[in-house]
Amino acid sequence: MAVTETATIGLSEGVLNIVNYEIIKGNPLWRLGLVLVVVLAAMVTGRIVQFAINGYAGRREQKTGRTALTIFLRCFTKPASVAIFGVGLYLCRLCLVFEDKTATPVVEGISSAIEKGWGRIAQTVIAIAVAYWLYRLVDIIEHLLWRWTSRTETKLDDMLVPAVRKSLRVTVAIVTVIFIVDNILEQDVGSILLGAGVGGIAVALAAKDTIANFFGSITIFADRPFQMGELIKVDDHVGPVEEVGFRSTRVRTLDGHLVTVPNSVIANSIVENIGRRPFIRRTSNITITYDSGHTKAAKAVEIIKDVLADVPEVNTDPDRPPRVYFSDFNDWSLNIYMSYWVKPADYWLYQEVNERVNLEMMRRFEEAGIEFAFPSQTLYMKKD
Questions:
Q1: Fewer CB atoms < 10 Å away: N or C end of the chain?
Q2: Which of 58, 186, 180, 70 is nearest to 130 (CA)?
Q3: Neighbour order of strands in the sheet with 323-329
Q4: How confident is the model at residue 160 (pLDDT cuts 50, 70, 90)?
């Protein structure tokens, strides 16, 4: 019995020695195990919270559709997991013993510098979680802006939505970095910003064209000289607008080429918005031969008026009726001035109307015996 008791006591002392074995100065093995348990618990808790919120948001979205509340819940899932992990890191610090030379007696443990760094890491993770949450909350603003822009007829304000989203997210990132550097890392942000300001002046001078394009884009968004898809003419470029950005505007020319025009050029140029014209005007001179005489000249004017009156696409508004006049005596022909407006302003419809007018006019001229004139000369030779 004595031998058995001695062996049991020896085994217990051995286990106790293993448990109390100091892996790091002042911290036995069980404290490090507790740190591991807290980290694992924080990770598991974060996953559970993320799964629960996602499940609730999914069920609600199936009932009510995608709303601001469901977006808010989905924005909160991943940042909540990161925040719980940060809290777990902070609690891990409470499980360890750190040195304290001011205490009596002096407490031996992990270096106080590591303790301070550990706390900063935990605070940084929590700050990143909050910033990540704000970063994701921009989706709610985007959702509300999309709802607002969908009610307007213009498509140009649709381009503002991704621009506002990017700007807000960049702002959140910059503010987060400044907050972490100033409040957690305790660095002098003023001197850093001062140095960045001096360098920013040089960058601004080098990037003056980029800044001019940015303000040009603000002018476009505020003035709205054109909408997405409208046919415009800028300098020598004619085509529909495909995209408006903060630096440039992309125009697809009628030849199929994609032209990128800086917004500063558009802001300082005359932009001809062809897509907003209510009609397309055709002006033409119809020439008949001098042999027609005044009778056939008057008949030709009546024929053209009758042809235009029978075309429904030709605008007959009192302010812009078709105009047909026997206008001039040319060197080689009698000139009849013709002008009319095609409505609606569809370019290919305009060409179709022109074709119908031309063919019908030729047919009636042939029936009336009226000949079109072309540049010619008649030579009279005198015999001696």
A1: C
A2: 180
A3: 280-288, 334-342, 323-329
A4: low
- What is the rounded distance in angstroms from the CA atom of residue 254 to the CA atom of residue 300? 37
pLDDT band at 357 (very low <50, low <70, confident <90, very high): very high
Per-residue burial over 103-114, b if 16 or more Cβ lie within 10 Å, else e, is: eeeeeebbeeee
Q: Are 56 and 49 in contact (CB under 8 A)?
A: no
Averaged pLDDT, 83-99:
84
Rounded to the nearest 10°, the torsion over CA 229, 231, 233, 239 is 80
Q: Does the pLDDT at position 207 exceed 50? A: yes
Cα 281 versus chain centre, distance: 36
Q: Which domains does the chain have, with CATH numbers?
A: 19-198 (no CATH), 227-276 (2.30.30.60), 280-368 (3.30.70.100)
CB atoms within 10 A of CB 333: 21
- Contact criterion met (CB below 8 Å) for 326 and 299: no
Helix H or strand E encompassing 55: helix 29-64
- At a CB cut-off of 8 Å and minimum separation 6, what does 132 contact? 78, 79, 82
What is the separation, in whole angstroms, between the first and last Cα of the chain?
Answer: 167
Residue 156 corresponds to which tokens in the numbers above? 């140009």
d(CA 212, CA 247): 9
Distance between CA atoms of residues 67 and 245, nearest Å: 28
In this predicted structure, the answer to whether residue 91 has a pLDDT above a threshold of 70 is yes
